[in-house]
Every structure is written in structure tokens, then in C-alpha cells.
Amino acid sequence: MLDERPRIAVLTSGGDAPGMNAAIRSVARKTIFHGGEAIGIMHGYEGLLDRRFASLAVGDVGGILDRGGTFLGTSRSARFQAPGGVDQAAEILRAEGIDGLVVVGGDGSYRGAEELHEAGIPTVGVPGTIDNDLSGTDITIGFDTALNTIADAVGKVRDTASSHERTFVIEVMGRHCGMLALHSGVACGADCILLPEVPWNIEEVCSAIETGVRRGKKHSIVILAEGAGHAFPLAEDLSGMCGQAVRTVVLGHIQRGGSPSGFDRILASRMGAAAVDALLAGETNVAVGLRCAETFTYPLSVAYKHEHQLDQRLIELARALSL
Ligand code: F6P
């Protein structure tokens, strides 16, 4: 158990994700609910080094549940990662009387949280990334919303693709992990899904498009994860090989914005509260995960290892359905 009136801080770090605000609200209100004091740290680890602390009262986190982005701001802080950065941050947290820290972010943010734990600060991670690339949890905050954003965009592209009988290469986010590409590909009925984890070649892509045309398809959609190749040269090469117009859409940061889905709001609310419970129970160096609809905690070091396997059955299903 922490102090009688624990001071629990929360920061968001790395790429923002829809639902981060819901997580901040949950951390703050669960802390207050248990008689503690909630502190927000602005702009992630960068703001921590600049001592940008703000008290979070109940009203300060009102009206943010449905807002995209993170009202605390976020950063990828080189200063924090530089030698001495973590120790300085830990000193600042001690000086501010922080009893526990909740870090909402992805793999890089989790590594920072682990280092702060080693420097003596109780820390708990909450998975906030649209990539869904953290090991040990079924899903991360923001993935569902990003998936829906992609599905909406691909639906619009499909309308024009169908009218013109064209092929589109649509690039989605995911530098190292094809989770967004695979799931959006299945959700949108893509004819071909190109993932960083699965080797592919352009002949196969061309053949998939040509087979589709022979079978009466009026358009083709190729979903490309950003870590699996580059959309513009791929479209150009495909156009030459398949002898038809191939257009390109790079969805980019639109995937990170927007109001979180109902699913992400609930997920973030549950996970933020679970993080506070973990700190109050004396846990540290752990991440909150979701498995079989239950929240639980497990070591941070397991979470950031990128051992999150793509669902092989979903890959096979995508192949079967795109025939
Ligand atoms: O990790 C989230 C993510 O959106 C990745 O999918 C993407 O590759 C990266 O962040 C983009 O980062 P930045 O916003 O710094 O360009």
C-alpha cells in the first residue's frame, strides 16, 4: 500500500492514440476515488524533465472521454533517453512527492517506465498505441479506433476504385508490426495484404490482381503496412506489370486521430483504473493487459519485446476470402 493520501502521476508518451484521454481521466478519477491526489505530467518524459506538473481535479478531466489525442500532450524525448536523463527524472518525481507513476504509451515508453522503476519510482504501464504491437495483451488502446478509421477510408476509396475499375494501393501505419494492416485488410475485404512479418513479392501481388479481374472483380484493394514497403513505387511497378491504372492512398496520421470508439473508451477506462489499483497494491514495473476480457498485470519487460505474433488463422482466412 502507498501513503494514505498517495500522489499518483500520469503521463502519455510516444505516438498518441485515441483513448489516451479516457485513460488519463480514469487514472485521475480512480486515484481521487481512493482518496489520493492525481497529477498530470505534460508532454511525456520531456515535460517531466521540465517539471511540467499539473494537479488533476475531478473537473479537470471532465469532457475529455470522447476526445482524440492526449490533452496532456506527448513526446518522444531524446533528453530522457540521454545519459543521466532517467536519474534526473526520478529525482524530480521524488522532489514532487510522487508515490507512483502511470505511463500510457507503447514500447519505447515502457522501456522508460522500466528504467524509472530501476531508479526507485513505482511505475505501471498502460498500453496506448494504435499499432497493437505490445506482447502479452490482446489489444492496446487506440487500435480499434484506428481500425475503424481505416475501414471508413477504404470504403470511400473502394467506391471510386469500383467506378473506374482500378487497383488501389492503400498504405496503413505499422513500421514493425502488421497488425493494423492484417485486421483492416480482413475488415475491408482487401485482395492482397502486405505485412512486414510475411515475405512477399510483386509477382504474387500482380497475379492476385489479375486473377481477381478474371473472376469478375471490378476493382482491387492492396493494403500495405508501412513497414512492408513503399506505396508509390509499388503502385508504379504494379501499373506497368498489370497493364492497368493503379492509384495510391497513404492514410498517414489520420489513423492516429479522431474520437475514440466506444470499445477504446471502455478499454482505456478499465486499464487506467487497473493501473491505479496495481500501484495502490504496491505493484511496480508491470504493464496492464487485457486477456479474455479481464485486465491483469505482467512484467513491463515482457510487454515491449515485440513477441506479439500475428494470428496465423486470420492470415489464412484473409487468403481464402480474397480468392
Ligand atoms: O507507433 C505509432 C505510430 O503511429 C506508428 O504506426 C508509426 O510508424 C509511427 O507512430 C509514426 O510516428 P511519428 O508520428 O513520430 O511520425
Question: How would you characterize this protein structure?
Answer:
- The N and C termini lie far apart (57 Å).
- The chain has helices at 20-33, 44-49, 78-81, 85-95, 107-118, 143-164, 179-188, 202-214, 231-242, 262-280, 300-303, 312-321, and strands at 7-12, 37-41, 53-55, 100-105, 123-127, 167-172, 192-194, 220-225, 246-250, 286-291, 294-299.
- The protein is elongated, with a radius of gyration of 22 Å.
- It contains 12 helices and 11 strands.
- It has 323 residues and is of the alpha/beta class.
- The protein folds into 2 domains: 7-142 and 260-305, 3-Layer(aba) Sandwich (Rossmann fold); 144-257, Rossmann fold, CATH 3.40.50.460.
- The mean pLDDT is 96.
- The strands form 2 sheets. Strands 3-2-1-4-5-10-11 form a 7-stranded mixed β-sheet, sandwiched between helices. The protein has a 4-stranded parallel β-sheet with strand order 7-8-6-9, sandwiched between helices.
- The structure holds 6-O-phosphono-beta-D-fructofuranose (F6P).
- Residues 15, 106, 129-131, 173-175, 226, 256 line the site of 6-O-phosphono-beta-D-fructofuranose (F6P).
In terms of topology, how is this protein built?
Blueprint: E1 7-12, H1 20-33, E2 37-41, H2 44-49, E3 53-55, H3 78-81, H4 85-95, E4 100-105, H5 107-118, E5 123-127, H6 143-164, E6 167-172, H7 179-188, E7 192-194, H8 202-214, E8 220-225, H9 231-242, E9 246-250, H10 262-280, E10 286-291, E11 294-299, H11 300-303, H12 312-321
Parallel strand pairs: 1-2, 1-4, 4-5, 5-10, 6-8, 6-9, 7-8
Antiparallel strand pairs: 2-3, 10-11
Helix pairs in contact: 1-10, 6-7, 7-12, 8-9
